């Protein structure tokens, strides 16, 4: 039997902790994912993380225990999009900036 899909959407304004702005299961989860993809939002699928995020009420900020993992996902999504801080230097040459 196929497991029902779940989705939780976060909004991050660059200042305060990310907030839960949408969440759902089944068809609603599919709709959340479709809207995200339509708007170019990168989607990360992680069953354990979604279990934690689904416990947060709509409009609430993520708890401090999730700051590091969410910050890493946000930072990685920026790198995938070719976005870097103004004063960032690729000192280890680990990221190919020529794409």
Automatic annotation (TrEMBL):
Signal peptide (from-to): none
Pfam families: Bac_export_2
Keywords: Bacterial flagellum protein export, Protein transport, Transport
InterPro entries (alphabetical): T3SS_substrate_exporter, T3SS_substrate_exporter_C
Annotated family: Belongs to the type III secretion exporter family.
Annotated PANTHER family: FLAGELLAR BIOSYNTHETIC PROTEIN FLHB (PTHR30531)
General function of this protein: Required for formation of the rod structure in the basal body of the flagellar apparatus. Together with FliI and FliH, may constitute the export apparatus of flagellin.
Name of the protein: Flagellar biosynthetic protein FlhB
Source organism (scientific name): Alkalimonas mucilaginosa
